Amino acid sequence: MALNMRTSQAGLDLIKAFEGFRARSELLPNGRWMVGYGHVRRAKKGVRVNKTEAEAILREYDLPPVERFVMRCVLAPMTQNEFDALVSLAFNIGPKAFSGSDVVAGMNAGNRLEAAAAFDLWRRAKIGGRVQIVDALVRRRAAEKALFLNAPGRLPVASSRLYRAMHDSDALPAPPPTREILVEHHSLPEQESLPELGEEETVRTATEAAAESVRQQMVRILGEDSAETQNDTVPADDGTTAEEIAAAVSELAGDPAPSQVTKSVWPPLNDLPDVADAPERAAPSDTQVVALDPIEGTDVIDDLEQVEVSPESIERAVEINQAMDAEERRGSLLNALPFGLLALIGAALGGYGLASQFGMIQSDETIESPLAIYLPPFLILLGVLLFATMAYYFVRSLSSKD
């Protein structure tokens, strides 16, 4: 069990990169507010922070409870990189899921490679009521695993001459279950039968010719004897009969015919692997397995509880955020307006100085003071400096979001 460990700058940068920065509080679809680098607990409407303040909130307010919880769950010694990766994972999936994860079980069992592989079990999220693999979570788990495996010292040797990588079938997802589909079987009259492969046909429709061509290709590919394929009711090795082929070709050729619809199973059951011989696979990642119970007496608050979000709530959150964006743009424009006016004044002074310098502005009065000779260059210099300075602050006020 590690004592008094804190997240390093490398772990903090990883969490900041994947949490994303929000300069002002934004409404989430579940009705809560988020600001900074994923801060939810004390966030409310109208809160604004800069990046320095958001990093301080993350380091000193959000992460300390998670760090203490990780140290309570993991009983084995940890390096700094391992601790940073585990804190990032716990901060993302929540304390309850982290305490029952295979990552913690692997660490406590002393099997760090198994713990590293278990990071990939947390790549799914519910989006629009459907659980699916999310690209951002795949990248985050990969970055956390890379940090977890980055042990101090030189990199381990993994030469291709020593270790030739092999395909890991255990890492593949389980095969999809067999499902039923409808296949149209077109029955032929009893007196008619398809001709043998070597027999010449005198009258043949385009549909029949296409079906016969497909059947000949199957015979050449599968290497079956032509005598064994004369009976059209005998299914092929892949579970498809000549009647099914003729029906499919007829449908493509637009030649409808009365048919009787029956059900077939695709793929055939004999082509699927035997479930009894298949290796046992790990339980899905959404299975709640509570191996430890170190939560007693802790001050960890789970901000990642599952909530049901209605489409109306999502639309309302989007409308509020869009209204706040529009209000922020108007405020930025009002703040930048004085700088824009001063920039225009500087441009006018510079233009007047240039016009006077090159004689574009004629005057009947004679120059009585020597200082009047230096007035046009002074106006040009003052106008250029004023315009450049005010234009810089004008653009900065428009683009500033902190």
Record the SSE blueprint.
Blueprint: H1 9-19, E1 22-27, E2 33-36, H2 51-73, H3 80-93, H4 95-99, H5 102-108, H6 112-117, E3 124-127, E4 130-133, H7 135-149, E5 179-185, H8 206-222, H9 242-253, E6 260-266, H10 311-357, H11 375-399
Antiparallel strand pairs: 1-2, 3-4, 5-6
Helix pairs in contact: 1-3, 2-3, 3-7, 8-9, 10-11
Please provide a written account of the structure.
The protein is mainly alpha-helical and 402 residues long. The chain folds into three domains: 9-151 and 288-297, Lysozyme (Orthogonal Bundle), CATH 1.10.530.40; 179-268, no CATH class; 313-399, no CATH class. Helices cover 45% and strands 8% of the residues. It has helices at 9-19, 51-73, 80-93, 95-99, 102-108, 112-117, 135-149, 206-222, 242-253, 311-357, 375-399; strands at 22-27, 33-36, 124-127, 130-133, 179-185, 260-266. The strands form three sheets. A two-stranded antiparallel ribbon has the order 1-2. It has a two-stranded antiparallel ribbon with strand order 3-4. Helix 1 (9-19) runs parallel beside helix 3 and helix 3 (80-93) runs antiparallel to helix 7. The relative contact order is 0.10. The model is unreliable at 197-202, 226-238 and 259-295 (pLDDT under 50).
